[in-house]
Hints:
It contains eight helices and twelve strands. The chain is α/β, with parallel strands linked by helices. Strands 2-1-3-4-5 form a five-stranded parallel sheet, with helices on both faces. It has a four-stranded antiparallel sheet with strand order 6-7-8-9, covered by helices on one side. A three-stranded antiparallel sheet has the order 10-12-11.
Amino acid sequence: MDDLGVAVVIEDDADVRNLLEGVLTQAGFEVHTADDGRSGVEVVRSKQASVVTLDIGLPDIDGFEVLRRIRTFSNAYVVMLTGRTEEPDLLSALNTGADDYIAKPFRPRELRARVAAMMRRPRQEANGLRPSPAAWGQAAAPAAWGQAAAPAAAPAESGILQHNGLRLNHRTRTVEVRGEPLGLTRSEFDLLHVLLKGGGAVCTRADLVRAVRGEFYDHDTYISEADERAVEVHVGNLRRKLKEDQLAPRWLQTVRGVGYRLAPRRPDDA
């Protein structure tokens, strides 16, 4: 199997640490471990990790503080491991810079699927590593899950979608609103891209979980309430960055009890 780079496991529970080390080693990573937060930060720094699994409940400093420190020098993919799935914890993890989270207990196959979905997304690597998606047996890009054949947001040119003054370039993974750049996380970008491609078709929360997680999350995969809550957090963050008017949204409409859809096109923004 291809060498996927360096993975660091930061986990104080020896059994969980050994399980994570085995799963990632089998997947093709060079794996290093740490049993507390401070030493974990140094291992990530010294080994130039491309992937980090990070427990929230560590004996010295909590996982949120570890993540904040890692983000000062590394753009590694980070998966938070937690037994807590309440919305404030999810919000803290995602806002601090986590790429994903997974609740304990977890299945090894699910962990591999989550890491694979993250690594498939384009990004600028802090350490120059860009692991090959082929090593995970994946397709090139996620589909717009569960969407009807509806006109997409107006494409100005290949790879670009425009709607009500918003312009998304999928090739460069950039977004502008009336010419001003908008900084989005990978998950926020992927959700917005799917909704724009849907052209007004309703996307359920489960559809959007699959869009973020990738093809490993097919229609037979169980999607938890925590997964759906994480999507709600991403959508909430996206709305705040877009400065959406809750009473008259320009881009993202809530379909109560179902999910989300693209707001109608406004003639003044055509």
